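Teaching assistant here, posting this on the class forum so everyone can see the example we discussed in section. The complex has two components, and the goal was to see what a joint structure prediction looks like when all of them are supplied at once.
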Amino acid sequence: MNFPEDLKYSKEHTWLRISDNIGTIGITEFAQSELGEIFYADLPNDGYSFEQDKVFGSVEAIKTVSDLFMPVSGKVIETNKKLL
Amino acid sequence: MKIALFSDIHANLPALQAFFKDVDSRNTDAIYCLGDLVGYNIWANEVVNEIKNRKIPTIAGNYDFGIGRMSNECGCAYKTDHEKDNGKISISFTNSIMNDEERKYLRTLPAHIKVEFQLHEDKLNLLLVHGSPRKINEYLFEDREEKSMLRIMEQADADIMCFGHTHKPYHRIINSGVDGQNHFRHAINIGSVGKPKDSNPQGGYVMLTINDNSSILDKDSIQVEFIRFNYDIETAAKAVEESPLPNEFADMLRNGA
């Protein structure tokens, strides 16, 4: 498994990369391997704000739907449209 | 119109024969099979031939898809290493007993069947899938979030969506209407004929009744009956124990696990 040095990890299997006060959030390789193939990502609209540890979306995999938790508080400025 | 829907026989011939006996006694108008004919027991070819000979419209389950292509992957999403090991024994055993003609039948089964009823001025879409419309081996358990279930049904334009794969039967009605207008959608897991996992070892299937007045506007206008029937579980369990298959599969049949 690859652990890039500029990523910080949460207990809820998300990673965070901060650059110029903008954070990029993803799910960890471990979470992906546990979930298996992901069929759908339910992501928030741009402009929504979320507190730390709150659910901001979910991913649907072969056997389960898994909530996504905010590793920090913040406002959504963009989501990865390729996932939708 | 009384429509019998069954699936997940998993090479359990005594269960399939008991199902036919039960369904034949109920004045059924149509029968559909939602897949997973093979795997986990010894009568893979016999089960295929029973269904083929009766000319029952059948869709492929994930196990049929794998065995049809001589694959060593059945798409079963086992959790533990032990389950994975047992799963490997089952798929390699099933591949070893499958005849060419029966394998070809599995390979050519369709993925979905859509039946559109025309009642009054409305249409009513019945969609038959094995796991979900988007994936043959997706597990739609009863606790699936309503939003997710609804999105899957809306994307597939399904008013009534019937599926198997989890071996745990349920019926959920979700109202997807907007602006005060009702649009009731039915998500129906039809259970399993030959390998139930809901702690009831009896075989199970669904009888769906569509009437003149069936409509998306009235949630009670579509009847769903979950039927359970007895079969010779010991014969099926002993067949497992006398085969190269793991003995645990026999106890799972005895316990409905």
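For the discussion questions: Strands of chain A lie at 8-9, 14-19, 22-27, 38-42, 49-50, 55-61, 65-69, 74-75. The mean pLDDT of chain A is 90. Think about how each of these relates to the inputs above.
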